[in-house]
Amino acid sequence: MAARFSFSFIFAASLFLLLLDCCSGSFIGICYGRNADDLPTPDKVAQLGLYLLSFSQFQSNADAWIKNSVLPYYPATKVTYITVGAEVTESSYNTSSLVVPAMNNVLTALKKLGLHKKIKVSSTHSLGVLSRSFPPSAGAFNSSHAHFLKPMLEFLAENQSPFMIDIYPYYAYRDSRNKVSLDYALFQASSEVIDPNTGLLYTNMFDAQIDAIYYALMALNFRTIKVMVTETGWPSKGSPKEKAATPDNAQTYNTNLIRHVINNTGTPAKLGQELDVYIFSLFNENRKPGLESERNWGLFYPDQTSVYNLDFTGRGAVDMTTAANVTRSNRTTWCIASSKASEIDLQNALDWACGPGNVDCTAVQPSQPCFEPDNLASHASYVFNSYYQQNGASDVACSFGGTGVKIDKDPSYDNCIYMRDGNNKTSGGNTRAMSSTSSSQQKGICYSSISIYLLMYAAFWRAGEVVVCCKAFHTMPEIR
Fold it and tell me: Which domain-ending residue is among 254, 281, 315?
């Protein structure tokens, strides 16, 4: 959402539905926009009244802000990120040169208090920071921002902070309907978009845009920086020209997004890569300018009633089958390793499936029925098919970065029986969110309801100060 704030900080607070410190992996959060005059009163308020300019010029201002606006709420509120500037490259004010100095001063303030390893400093961007996003492998940053981006990326890499991006497939569809299908934007594409440079298959725009950022980072030799989505979502209402802005489409997009993220499938170029995502927004905001859709991104109305139902466990309120991007065949199919895949790609995909993909790979171990023939393609085929069947036999579940292919002939042999039609179904990629069993039963996997993170906004308007509000979910849809 371009140019929302001229001068801004985003204050990220993690407030748990249940304590899930044992958990690793991707998470879903909610952006708490405050551009409205009819929202419920927050429980806690952190007063913020400094400008980006003063943060960049004076260390004492950053020190004072951390002490006055973070410390009083920490660690009772689990503060995880402070982002300096929101989409500054979209601002009509020439503020980008102030961001990195301000980031350094905020980091220094955190170091003085020993919090720099617990609270990361970054800055959010719109997709407009790229000059090209398709095909994903051609993703490139806009050269006009080079003076700002290079030192910022160096800061992120040095301090292990994420690259924060706001991604909205809705806008790509709305503004280019002749080029982008609605199903592709909603994680429901029945066909695949192929990156001609890599051969990777994309079934949704969200993944394609994420990978475009990763390729842009790699093009500048920043290979260790992770991407974090600080805003994404879909509006539930729009102007007459915004026919895709409906409650059904908003519910479909966000439900499929949640499933996609908590399954830890990653993206075609980053298979199994964890991705943290914040849904925009908690409430509709009646004071936002622009088309009608701008005021209708909320999950809730200001009176705290739901705009539509949304299930954060990943099982979903939409009447669909398992994972996001589902396209089921009417006949029985299996997924095996592609004969065109390189050994290194197969090994990486196999390692992911037997690890974060939660496939039981016992059958391909020595002395087990699928160990022979003892080669990578055979082992990968059995494991790929197990993941494929456990996750609804969907197209995306047989992608494996382009190393998996679907077939309609049963590949079982001797005593090695390939799973079919979900038989012997075990927990798949979204295990973390679907059971209440004790986490001690499987190391590294937390069996509990997904935690809810709130991304709090604080905008520094030239006209005066605003507040950032901390509010936690207790039980959906009740807000306390």
Answer: 315
Note whether 236 and 304 are same-domain residues: yes
CA–CA gap between residue 290 and residue 272 (Å, rounded): 38
Rounded CA-CA distance 265/387 in Å is: 11
Q: Cα(433)–Cα(447) distance, rounded to whole angstroms? A: 6
Q: Which CATH number does the domain housing residue 91 bear?
A: 3.20.20.80
87 among known catalytic residues = yes
Residue percentage of the chain with pLDDT more than 70: 72
What single-letter amino acid sits at 333?
A: T
Looking at 87, 90, 285, 294, which residue is catalytic? 87
Domain-ending residue, one of 385, 407, 429: 407
What is the pTM assigned to this prediction? 0.62
231 is catalytic: yes
Q: How far apart are CA 92 and CA 176, in angstroms?
A: 25
Q: For residue 327, is it within any domain?
A: no
Please identify which of the residues 90, 231, 285, 294 carries the catalytic annotation: 231
Question: Is-contact 276 231, C-beta < 8 A?
Answer: no
Whole-angstrom distance, CA of residue 44 vs CA of residue 469? 6
> Are residues 87 and 124 in contact, defined by beta-carbon separation less than 8 angstroms?
yes
User: What's residue 390's pLDDT?
Assistant: 87
pLDDT tens-digit map of 70-115: 888 777 777 788 888 778 777 766 677 788 998 999 999 999 999 9
Neighbouring-strand partners of residue 457: 10
**Pair of tokens at residue 37:** 């005059």
Q: Quick check: 69 and 59 in contact, CB under 8 A?
A: no
Residue 399 lies in a domain: yes
Asked if 285 and 356 sit in the same domain, the reply is: no
Are both 162 and 256 inside the same structural domain?
yes
Q: Which amino acid is at 269?
A: A
What are the backbone dihedrals phi and psi of residue 304, each rounded to the nearest 5 degrees, phi first?
75, 15
Q: What distance in Å separates the CA atoms of residue 387 and residue 430, rounded to the nearest whole number?
A: 12
Q: Which residues form the domain of 104?
A: 24-315
The dihedral built from the CA positions of residue 31, 36, 42 and 45, taken in this order, carries a sign that is: positive
In a domain, 229, yes or no: yes
Residues 45 and 119 in one domain: yes
Q: Name the phi and psi angles at 328, rounded to 5.
A: -90, 145
Residues 402 and 294 in one domain: no
